[in-house]
Fold these 2 entries.
Entry 1:
Amino acid sequence: MVAWLRHAGSALLAVAAAPVVGAGLAVRPGWREGIGERLGLRTPRARGAVWVHGASVGEILAATGLLDALLERGRVVVASTTTASARGVLARARPGVPLTLAPLDHPWCVDLALSRVKPSALVLVETELWPAWIAGSARRGIPVAVVSARLSDRSFARYRRLAPLVRGTFARLAAVGARTEGDAERFLALGLPADRVLVTGDLKLEPPATPAALAPDLAALLAGPFWVAASTHAGEERAALDALEATDAAGIASPLVIAPRHLARSEEVARLVLRRGRRLLRRSRPGPLRPLAAGEVLLLDSLGELPAVIARARFAFVGGSLAPVGGHNVLEPARAGRPALFGPHTGNVREAAERLLACGGARRVTSSAELAAAAVEWLGDPALAQAVGEAARAELEKNRGATQRSLLLVEALLARGAEAGA
């Protein structure tokens, strides 16, 4: 009876959603990419694999250490992402790992995907709490863990308002490896038993074992000193170009790399750079194999190369923070021992931003003028910039071990599952 009701509800949901999905596919052709995977029809077959899922580029790259550790233990793994761009980045970073786009969070899509993989465990990274996927796993006896788990102020408030609706989803989680004590307390407040919640740390805080490598042609362009405006939104490129003019006026002209958060804005950013009278080079278009000249701008309109570029920069401004977006990965510069600048809007990365500010490994700027002043100071005093970057790297070293602790959490789940099946 329960199964019949579940399938009836799924059918009604599918009928109700069909017009919305159809309209979405018509208006946004990009949604059609990987539609077979999203429907669960083309998920890789990998019986007994540990399925690791991260939504976008930052989350899945943070989980690469965990994927590597599971493979070293002899585990079969499958990885999935929500976005096609993240899947492409991971395919280049870990070409031997079977990849798929995550199934749509509908019982039919989830069941098809799970029936193909038949995973031994599902490991979700950060905040990927998909109700149908978690419920479908629980019905099949597949333990679900969340690693590097976080709940932002907004998410926590929303889940508390919807407590009667989400209580079942949280109750089905077999284990949560929280980033911080604060995140752990929030999961406990939402009803998880204390014996299922551990503080394992933030996978994004894990210092990399080896620095990201630049492609040879990009290395030739970035052979000299430069700085980066990373993951920028509308208005932030203008602020970065204002800062470039300020460094020119101060007699310490330097090249600038601009990496817009959304590649769809590349043409808009290119036009802005040209209107400001700057020589523009684009990563997507082959150019001269010589270092960028002072005052030139490289538009990084490519995927997956930003971490390696930041690792070679004098410093990085991290976008989504002067624009009221909430901030992006302020830890990427710290991972490479580079100082970071970011604006006042860092609600999405609050703990990381506060950690870097407290250790002296970053600086907050509240306006275009303050960004320009900081750029002049750090370009004019390389030793100061290096000291700030080293403070950031040292702070991350204190948190080394998140990958190992997450691995132990997953291995404990697998061991319990093996005992139960024996």
Note: The first strand starts at residue 50 and ends at 54.
Entry 2:
Amino acid sequence: MKIETVEVLQKNIELLTKNNLREYEYIPQHYKALPALLTLHEIVELLRAIIFPGYFGEVVVNSNTLEFHLGVKLERLYNLLTEQILNGLRFNSTNNEPDHSDTQASETALKFINKIPELKRLLSTDIKATFDGDPSANTYGEVIFCYPSIRAVFNHRIAHELLVLGVPVIPRVISELAHSETGIDIHPGAQVGEYFSVDHGTGVVIGETCIIGNHVRLYQGVTLGAVRVRMDEKGLPLKVPRHPILEDNVVVYANASILGRITIGKDSTIGGNVWLTTSVPPGSRIMQQKAVVSSFYDGLGI
């Protein structure tokens, strides 16, 4: 290697190992194992195969072999999840803090595994709500196998449960995996009730502090977001509830934006393209103003 090449490389190595520039001095440097994206993706796929055997993973030949397949997958899930939870706990720690124990990670992994039957029950309600609300769906199996909304909600329910168990960063990664695949962005902190369905789903955004009741249906492009974020005395965003509450049996049509800590009363319908920043009582029907129909000639309407 030429001397000038070595000099250029060495100079930049020295610059990149320094961490005292004002623009990035607040970014921590990690020297411990951190959560691995590929492993977290494998964990999600394992959970798909455990919750929906036969649809994902290898073919389950018959019901007699199902117990064996589930046993193998659950054991691998436990090992991978324990490892990744430990790495997640390290993510928020400084290099000077004592290392987290394997015991804490393994106990959390077991607590999550105990929640899998309930996750399956909840996801089954989501599948039924999606099938019942979509005449184009031919079978429940088609909904499980094909619908991006089910994939996104699946990831969300996993991520939310891990967040409730106190696991850092991993829930966000799992949510973003679904976001990248489906265009549906659900923060793991959002609380979502039973029989939740998202029709088409592309462009849906659900914020961190949203509370969604039972039998709620959203269409594509819906935003359940926040208004202007308030800051504390240090200039950091305040951790306060800032996203909407949707009560039971609410329907929100395409491209509606519901913003701020407001409540949409039960049995309400929010029309497409509506911009809503105030609460509405139960049974409301909120629609955008009707378009004005006029005729124009010779390009005068442009």
Note: The first helix runs from residue 3 to 17.
